[in-house]
Batch of 4 targets.
Target 1
Amino acid sequence: MVPVHAACALLSFVPLLVLGVPPIWTQPEQVHLSYPGVPGSMAVTWTTFNKTESKVEYGLLGGRLFEMSAKGGTTLFVDSGEEKRELYIHRVTLTGLKPAATYVYHCGSDEGWSDVFLFTALNDSTSFSPRFALYGDLGNENPQSLARLQKETQLGMYDVILHIGDFAYDMDEDNARIGDEFMRQIQSIAAYVPYMTCPGNHEATYNFSNYRNRFSMPGQTESLWYSWNLGSAHIISISTEVYFYLEFGLDLLFKQYEWLTKDLEEANKPENRAVRPWIITMGHRPMYCSDDDQDDCTKFDSYVRLGRNDTKPPAPGLEDLFYRYGVDLELWAHEHTYERLWPVYGDKVYNGSKDQPYVNPKAPVHIITGSAGCRERTDRFNPNPKDWSAFRSTDYGYTRMQLVNATHLYLEQVSDDQYGKVIDSIWVVKDKHGFSAWF
Ligand SMILES: [Fe+2]
């Protein structure tokens, strides 16, 4: 017979056995880098599920390990799903880094450190020729290009990644566990090179809160829109979603437009454009596309391109603004395809010349690269594209870009379906940048 006191002791454990005890979760995970836009800096962001301190210990590769350390801040992100899961998002900005030097780091606290990772501090020279991988629409399920991107990043093929909206499908799902798993999946890329982002429609749930909390882009807009410089380029990231989710505030659309105008004006000051002649934009939903899905870009009066007349006051579109300020290259995603356009403005083609369309083009060049891989698979094309459509592919894949110098920029499309084969490439050559280059 069990003594009475032993039976009581046993009973006192029953509720614990029934409910289970959640694990202590102080181990850092979902480590990712971003470039704050200030030369010699790098931001490290990660997650824990219990509150801990936010520290990064780092040192030059080949030097004494972890000889330097930096502290940062922690924000509590409570997901809006039923479970109201709590995530502690840690952010530490490293400063005073030597351009082009490689650093070894780990992040966490005395309650647990991450694995060791490496990154190379961005070279702040305007003669630096950075190499990018860029894509949109990469999900947790069917992330077709992910393994190739992970491996190529670890082989040192890229300096920066641009993820042009639509993450995880969707980060908020399963009480934000899909977001957690997606951030773990991209760690093998994003812990090694800055992972620069813009929001897409799949981030919209709970007013983009998973996106705004998990990423750490430059500026004070919770990563919604911002700009930064690298090599000979000024790179602008925007939210096209302000044109579609008016329930989160029409004022955002106007705020972004006002900011964009000022940013483009500043980038076009002769002393600035002389140093950073390329202006490159990235935004999720394209102005043009030849997919057959009735998205915004399939319509002549696309909101992103021409604005909206059904708002008070009417909302200006972006095509005229980008043209007026001589934007050279516009990167888009959302359509689960790859499409390269001839230089286009106002629905018309403005090639540099018949033989060399991308040599001194007379309008911005558009690339749509939204086929990295997600559960929605790839899209289909309209059989009769307009004149501005130069090359199309429904293969899964992503784009590589090298900003070679002030006059030359190289783009190529990798097909994951064809085992990494380059299926398209162009050189954009510009002797002159800015509005006057169109004439
Ligand atoms: Fe999308």
Target 2
Amino acid sequence: MEGKEATQASQFLRRALQLAWKGRGAVSPNPLVGAVLVKNGRIIGEGLHRNYGGKHAEAWAIEDALKKGHSIEGADLYCTLEPCCFTGPEKHQPPCTDLILRNRIARVFVCTVDPNPRVRGRGIQILQDAGVEVTVGILASEALALNEGFFTYQIMKRPFVHLKIAQSIDGRIAALEGDSRWITDEKARRMVHRLRATYDAVLVGKNTVQLDDPELTVRLVKGRNPYRVVLDTHLELPLSSKVFRTKDPERTILITTTQSVSLERSSIEKDPLEAKRKALEDLGVRVLSVPPSPTRPSLSVVLHRLGDLGIRSVLVEGGASLFTSFLRENLFDRISFFIAPMVIGKGIEGIGDLGIRRIADHLRFDRMSFHRVGNQIMLDGYRSGFYEELYQMATLPLLANSKPIIANPFPPSSGKTPETSFTNGRNLLPLGLGR
Ligand SMILES: NC(=O)c1ccc[n+]([C@@H]2O[C@H](COP(=O)([O-])OP(=O)(O)OC[C@H]3O[C@@H](n4cnc5c(N)ncnc54)[C@H](OP(=O)(O)O)[C@@H]3O)[C@@H](O)[C@H]2O)c1
């Protein structure tokens, strides 16, 4: 597809992406999806997936058009994600492919394939087999950015992991005595609260709770609180910690190792760890035991357990040991440094030993961007190859398809020549980043 038609398709899909973004914080573990119906070059109906388990964007767009008195037959549907095509006991809505065919929609444009193994190209195939023209791949990159958590989980079976590090110019995240308040200014903290509101969970290590006693809630902007996840191998944190005393303690998850809890002694009175666990649970906190690796909770198991709870995206907020563990194990997808205009000298370094001994073995990031946020520079990037990995796996069935239905192939890997951009941070969160 080229020229005017391609430009128009991009405009309508961009509108669908904007609609989808409005559902942030409300639909996970479902994906954010937006849809617009177009007839004679004009939008006749709009819709978005508004809440988990609720009506799909395609159904809302059709309902919107009908309410406004439009006939849908022969219309074009622009949707950010491939329409679903299955029913199941855990699925709340009927297949959108049926709805599209019943309403005699002529053409369908989608940004990407739905990576859910129960769809992955089948929705497109059903529509094509019924004579609907389907175009895939326009604004694919933006659509992936919209649903990083959903795509990561469907393909890698673990949540999307974003490391957020606030540091001085010389790479310190705290002064020598552990004090890190406040390295960044109010504007950067507001940005972090905006980020929190779009993530399913924030995760920190025991020492951060001990030293900073953070609430890990969304306060500086409007938005819902994510789950708060704390890694505390031996259940040592005091019950008075703010993370255990929030208004919604059921959204705090404490991760410990199975070894911490004695299985032989069933009597809670005789076992201080069991007593502590019980006290935490009495506060409403969820305590999860995971196997140690070698002595601390295994991060890959932690992520899988969080995924089982419906968590699709995790913002790791520190401290240094956790940043180091996630980087060492290559269990991260995105990393953001908020670099404040200060030098601390001797202090706590944000990232410890990664086992790298030669420059050639350095960790590299893709899709780097730089933003000015208040007095900070925010440096943002992705694990090398992350986006290409997602896209290729999400479109594998299509590559085998004889019909040339991918409109714009995803931009080639930026691994060798990372894209960089410099912005003032205005458009930072949702779209328009050019990622
Ligand atoms: N500027 C920033 O962005 C920022 C953000 C957060 C914190 N901080 C600062 O960072 C400092 C704390 O950093 P930190 O490195 O001492 O502690 P941390 O990363 O907050 O917590 C580390 C502790 O978590 C526990 N843990 C459990 N499972 C783990 C795993 N898989 N990997 C690593 N740790 C695991 C370990 O204690 P147990 O095994 O005993 O449970 C470990 O000692 C504080 O000064 C805080 O103010 C700065």
Target 3
Amino acid sequence: MLLLQFSTSHYCRKARLALGYKGISYQVQNLTPGLHLLKLKPMTGLTTVPVLVPQLDNQPSVIADSSRIFQFLDAYCPTPPLYFDDPQQQTQTLMLEDWLDESIGTATRFVYYQFRAGAGKQIDPSWSSQVVIQVVRRQYGIDQASAELATQRLKIAFEVLQVWQERPYLVGDRISVADLAAAALLSPLALIPDYRENYPWLFENITRIHQLCGEALPPGLSSQS
Ligand SMILES: N[C@@H](CCC(=O)N[C@@H](CS)C(=O)NCC(=O)O)C(=O)O
């Protein structure tokens, strides 16, 4: 299988966690932001990564969107499962995944790029890095006001995800889509000292899940854990 991705994208990290959890071998192709449109739009009709190219007979030729990639992987390789048979657990998992994808993954992006343009500028003050950060900020409308709203949304996320402090799984008694989505989509916060100080349990869980999936730790956790 081939995963088309941006190396720094937390949604692509989410897809890699699922591939790793399933033990599926795959290759990655890193696309260049900006030029990615030329490749992806004719292929999928969308402009976002991750995109999975299964390269398998009798399977779809291309799958766009991390949630659809999860569904494909679970059907293609049912063990270990990512979803639940129990309808209540399944509904809870799907709701958590959708909320993490649509609300929290976006909020993380806002808070992260606001930090990288301000207090976190020294992480990579190079001209090329700062240009990329400014392009992303403009693309998504990230500024002080929108980043503050995102910060509020993240506060709610930490309340919801607190169950991780009492037990290792967000739903049921095993890993699911919800755990992988949370571990990937909150991972950019590992570079922000306030979050590391205030929510150590979050980063312990992110580390644990990455290790379980055989995925390299995100920046901020790799050198310190
Ligand atoms: N809902 C999508 C979101 C993916 C997403 O937002 N990807 C970003 C990178 S983090 C992207 O490809 N942006 C480029 C663009 O929108 O053109 C998913 O889960 O796959």
Target 4
Amino acid sequence: MRCIEFLAEDAPVFLDAHNACILLKARQKELASVEVSLDLGLSTQSVDFSEWDCDAQELDKIVKKPNSAYIIRDGTANEIAIRNSIEYRLRPTEKGQAPALVIDEELMHQIAPLGPMEYARRRAELAVNPGWRVLDIGTGLGYSAIASLDRDAHEVVSIEKHPEVIELSRMNPWSQRLHEDERVSIVIGDAFEVVSTLRVDSFDSVFHDPPQIQLTPKLYSTKMYRLIGQVLVPDGQLCHYVGPEGFSYRGQEVAKLVENRLRGNGFHSIEFIPKLQSILATYGDK
Ligand SMILES: C[S@@+](CC[C@H](N)C(=O)[O-])C[C@H]1O[C@@H](n2cnc3c(N)ncnc32)[C@H](O)[C@@H]1O
């Protein structure tokens, strides 16, 4: 039996190693049905093998690659990845947690002990209030943007350098609200240039969520922080991913380096939160 592409009308089937393993074992035991997730852990459902089934070889292929996620197309399991000069892919995380983004083998999300979406929610609880306008630098899979929507943000402007990442997010069941909610606008471009074109004082909160400093030093520069300050209203909030506690770059602790640069560019009440690997700061006069 080949993989059947759609479980129900318009609902594509996604699988990771954990769920492929459940399906394989259930088939080996000749069960009539099994409880499984066909959307990368977003929900679970009972699959009746008389209505849906999947080739054991395809399932086996998925089980052997626990760091990849798959979509079933034309009866075969296809890795959710885009490869040109750079490789972009979804990486499953713990059971029932959102997948992470991997760019050229660099993990773009904090994944333990919570999942990437849960971390985004915790950050948004600290940095977004209802009715706020949010600037989201580094869209990625849109988890910060979605967490801002859950906090009743009025609008979210989200900047992403790589169109491939946005394409990947369209394939991720956990990212769908990024594309469906009218409050979100996605701008493709280098944040360093795009932020300088935005209106002064136009955001209440900024998520600055760049890759680690050694990959994008420009996004941790004094000039970047000046640009972010310009678009924030007085008392506006910044939530900035800086990496784990003690993480250093060129002999300097990154959290300290960022703190000093922010202080020099009009930010105050700067606090490093190790559990969230992030700095929170307020813009303007104290
Ligand atoms: C840590 S991930 C962001 C995760 C995202 N906030 C989320 O919630 O899923 C960093 C993102 O920044 C993007 N990026 C890297 N350099 C950039 C730049 N100069 N301008 C805008 N985005 C950039 C990467 O492609 C990647 O998607």
